[in-house]
């Protein structure tokens, strides 16, 4: 449409924060072989601009002041053109169009435009101009044609008038170099108005209604245009436009994927269901985001959406893998930290003792409890815990077997304990452990008349096995009136508990047998208050009792430690443990034996009752 020589002179002013251009650069230059090409530096600068671009082309015949205007524009420090501004203008109702905005910069030296103070509209003036041209150069039809084409091609136009810059003819030929003060003030202000108009009103370049041009897109399109001009390949231009749409859609797709990723990352999920819910929500948002950005292209929106969905599903898998790994690492680290003490104990064989298995289970359960208390362990928390517990199975089994073996061995030893060495006795009783797995504790149940010294016996045992300080823990002399069945348990050691039962007012043979039947074992008899009377002892011996002990309790009023008193009670406890060991070792089928024994005792109780009546 224009003379080719004009194209080489088209200057372009780019206003964008980055990168900065300190002086104008030629955009399209003529190569040695007279072919056009896009200047590489300019192209590089453009490619770096990702913001919307305002493109200003200044065209016109030689020596009409184009360079002057261009310099003015590039030096103008007015408002910068910003995307927001363009958008708000659209909202204000200015119809957006892809056609460039055409600004006539008219040199109207005759000031015909303002006849008697009347300022014509743009259209009126343009018509005047056309008439002018027609009358003045009616033979120059080509010029006239150009004007018509321009009017048709640019639906949006603006007219700006410039008066005579200077009365000095010489100055007119080198307008760029003349200082502003030597120019007509009206011309200077007209040039300022021109710059102001461009900076404030010029819209960002658009390829389509919805497609604002960025610097990089413009550089690409420019290259295609130049190729078309040099090769005359219109199909290439169409391809290029299509490529650009595709490029935009591709970018929108990657932006959607990026949005999906951020949505998925910020959340802490602890189950696969939670993750799936999050995925669905993020997917929907990402697809919606793409729909908003889609530009018309050979490939339809549903086709793009399908492709995007596939990409997002792939992303879902990636994110899931990352979450899995994070969770694995976190949970494994956590277990390692929580297991620190247990690992140390394992290394030092601290569970390889009687009762070690029980201790190990306690420690393990404590680790599990603390693990479960920890929040935000991620999607693999349960799996890691299960793996961890599985990995412990073998060591657990070894600890159990070792414990049983050591305990069995240890139980064989008490026979060697010197019955007169009370520190040895004390140590043995305190450290006694039951074999793991079968029984929890040894219960020593006290039965007897009220006031016969059961509570005092509990106090005595606690005193002897304790820290050497006498305390009335069991309530010596406290009568419960024989009414409430109160059973109070006191721990003598890890394995032994003594139970202070309610006393009863009457204890004959039937009651005694009843008690034995309930206990399932033959009792140990304690004669308190040092009753050694042979009559009492004989009564029990006649009932088949073998273990009879004469004990003088420690009481509130008399608890000075006496070696003999200590020894009697310690030996009593030792004998109980020996009896327990005997039952554990000799009775292979303990339950059957117990059952037979109970039947026997019940029979005895019935017979005794029958004899009385
Ligand atoms: N002399 C002496 N008094 C004792 C003995 N055991 C307990 N007593 C006293 O007997 C009374 C009742 O004892 P207690 O332990 O409360 O009997 P419980 O009802 O069987 O619990 C208290 O005044 C004790 O001081 C002992 O072995 N010798
Ligand atoms: Mg009592």
What report would you give on this structure?
One of its GO terms (molecular function) is GTP binding. The chain has 613 residues and is mainly alpha-helical. The protein folds into 4 domains: 229 residues, Rossmann fold, CATH 3.40.50; 96 residues, no CATH class; 73 residues, no CATH class; 170 residues, no CATH class. It has 21 helices and 11 strands. The strands form 5 sheets. It has a 3-stranded mixed beta sheet, covered by helices on one side. The protein has a two-stranded antiparallel sheet with strand order 1-2. Strand 5 and strand 6 form a beta hairpin. Helix 11 runs antiparallel to helix 12 and helix 18 packs antiparallel against helix 21. The longest helix is centred in the middle third of the chain and has 38 residues. The protein is rod-shaped and about 155 Å long. The protein starts with a helix and ends with a helix.
